[in-house]
Write a structure and sequence with these properties.
By secondary structure, the protein is α/β, with parallel strands linked by helices. It contains eight helices and eleven strands.
């Protein structure tokens, strides 16, 4: 059974989320503070975290950072009242897969959770079946092993960064719109903020390009999208 960890210090909200998720067939546990969240993430190994940012003991951003240091697989959906752009960008850069602000629509939240978990499952099945190795410039990408190297040195990519890179690689030389990338990687057409793709692409350039300000491989076509050049 798919496991979801709800990290929320509002007990009524946490219980309400747990009840609705259990109705949808998930196994659910609750952590009321950041320290307990990290303990459960390590021992219970959930498939997805629904993570509040304003938490006792350890705040949600620190929980996310520490989780990603040891775990790139678990999906993370931030659910918070902090809706300013700086928090959204920071959360996504730290490795969150989606960001939802309170108040929220329950049906939309459940749909987002389902989509994240579905895409995680599809990606794992594709890895198990084997996938090609791509090369461009001094970059090598082993899709099956989820390994990326630059000039022989390993490069650590977060899950969404890796997924975006694979989408560009599989359509190398073609212009891929932001809308197509949103659909392919996040599963939404327009319901996540428009800068999400740009933020992740900036991180890819920072990690892979020799000069991120003058990218040679991950090219922006203004008003059209992105293209990967060999």
């Amino acid at each position: 059974m798919t496991r979801v960890l709800v990290v929320e210090d509002d007990a009524d909200l946490a219980i309400g989320l747990r009840n609705n998720l259990e109705i949808d067939g998930y196994e659910v546990d609750i952590a009321g503070d950041g320290e307990r969240a990290l303990e459960l993430a390590a021992c219970w190994r959930p498939d997805l975290l629904v993570l509040d940012l304003t938490l006792p003991r350890i705040d949600g951003m620190h929980v996310l950072r520490r989780l990603r240091e040891r775990d790139k697989r678990t999906a993370v959906l931030i659910l918070t009242a902090r809706g300013n752009e700086a928090d959204k960008v920071r959360g996504l850069r730290l490795g969150a897969d989606d960001y939802v602000t309170k108040p929220f629509g329950l049906l939309e939240l459940l749909a987002r959770i389902e989509s994240l978990l579905r895409r995680q499952s599809v990606g794992e099945r594709a890895d198990a079946a084997g996938a090609p190795t791509f090369r461009f410039g001094d970059i090598e990408v082993d899709v099956a092993a989820r390994r990326v190297s630059k000039a022989g040195a390993p490069v650590a990519l977060r899950p969404k960064e890796f997924a975006l890179l694979v989408q560009l690689l599989r359509r190398r030389g073609e212009v891929v719109s932001r809308l197509d990338l949103m659909k392919a990687v996040w599963g939404y057409s327009s319901s996540i903020m428009t800068r999400t793709v740009d933020t992740h692409m900036w991180e890819l350039r920072r990690k892979l390009e020799t000069d991120p300000a003058r990218p040679r491989h991950i090219v922006t076509l203004r008003g059209a999208g992105y293209r990967l050049d060999a």
